Amino acid sequence: MRETYQGKKVLITGGLGFIGSTLAIQLVEWGADVTLVDSMIPEYGGNLFNIEPIKNQVRVNFSDVRDPHSMEYLVKDQDYLFNLAGQVSHIDSMTDPLTDLDINTRAQVVILEACRKFNPRIVVVFASTRQIYGKPQYLPVDENHRLYPTDVNGINNMAGEWYHTLYHNVYDLNTVSLRLTNTYGPRQLLKHNRQGFIGVFVRQIIQGEKIKIFGDGQQIRDMNYVEDVVDALVMAGAKPECYGQVYNLGGNEPINLLNLVKLLIELNGSGEFEVIPFPPEKKLIDIGDYYGDYRKFSQMTNWQPRTSLKAGYTKMINYYKEHLEKYLTV
Fold first, then answer.
1. Residue 221 in contact with residue 181, Cβ under 8 Å?
2. What beta strand segments (E) does 25-139 contain?
3. What are residue 273's phi and psi, to 5 degrees?
4. Of 107, 164, 200, 232, which sits with the fewest C-beta atoms within 10 Å of its C-beta?
5. Is 189:328 a contact under the CB 8 Å cutoff?
6. Do 178 and 236 contact (CB within 8 A), yes or no?
7. CB 181 within 8 A of CB 292
8. Pairing between strand 182-184 and 174-180?
9. What predicted TM-score, i.e. pTM, was given to this entire model?
10. Rg of the chain (C-alpha set)
């Protein structure tokens, strides 16, 4: 991967977020010329502290991916675009569906049109989501599973993903989509649950608060450590055989939420939890159990999740014990 990206120009949308900043740190280490784009919309997870280790080695452009003039300028001369910007809150998508539509669907057309018109040779790696499957009909979920989202966010992400496939098929753009599952690790948004339950659980346990688990705690999830997700993103971009395709990511240690919380308490050395009923608005869109089949991507790239839950959460807890104050106000 170092040889592939060394000296290349790379644009990362959502670049000050959790995954984008981790990707940027890796690419800078490999010698890439990195530009980060982030709108810094409050509550969406952009945090300048995320790029503290490389703050003098990247360019940061405060732009909104919905702005065609900005995107037309930014995609010019870039070799790779990692398209990570998005609205990820499922509840927010139900209370404000038009904003979710604007960011997760319309903005994808803006980005792809900019690439088509001003840089048709660029490679675009799109971060899609397992949420588009909805409630699984079977486990593990593979790419042939029906797409039946349970919320507005899933529908709009599905549309965004299909636009990437369409622009490959019709305009021959080099696009590839990865359906991410629950991603965790350092630099994740902690203040609220707009990026899922994981950050909230970790914050609560570090601050000595009682963790609240909705339902009965038996809901199963798979998880990927953020550095493993970064590995997948760069592999997808580097392999032309992936272009035009859609792939699942997934973890190899599915775990229910009750056992996840018990693991966090063990790693932290202390902690408490309680099981409480689902809030009605969350129960309506809950997907039940989920874990993904990532064999298609693994067979194409040899990607495997390398980080165990115990190792990954140990790194995450230690990171926030050192830097928690940097994540409580953003």
1. yes
2. 33-37, 59-61, 80-83, 123-129
3. -145, 165
4. 200
5. no
6. yes
7. yes
8. unpaired
9. 0.95
10. 19
The owner of tokens 């530009």 is 35
* Rounded CA separation 78/71 (Å): 11
Q: What pLDDT is stored for residue 269 in this prediction?
A: 96
Residues 37-57 have pLDDT tens digits of 998 887 777 899 999 999 999
**Residues 180, 144, 123, CA angle at the centre, nearest 5°?**
50
Return d(Cα 130, Cα 284) in angstroms, integer: 17
202-236 confidence digits (pLDDT tens): 999 999 999 999 888 999 999 999 999 999 999 99
- What's the burial of 208, exposed, middle or buried (CB within 10 Å: 0-12/13-18/19+)? exposed
Interacting residues of 316 by C-beta distance below 8 A, sequence separation 6+: 184, 185, 186, 188, 202
Q: Which of 194, 197, 180 is nearest to 264 (CA)?
A: 197
Evaluated on CA atoms 10, 13, 19, 24, the torsion sign reads positive
Token reading at 56: 């003098």
Q: Which residue has the tokens 């202390």?
A: 270
Looking at the predicted structure, is the pLDDT value of residue 193 above 80?
Answer: no
Rounded CA separation 59/14 (Å) = 13
Q: What confidence tens digit (pLDDT) does each residue in 251-294 have? A: 999 999 999 999 999 999 999 999 998 887 777 778 889 999 99
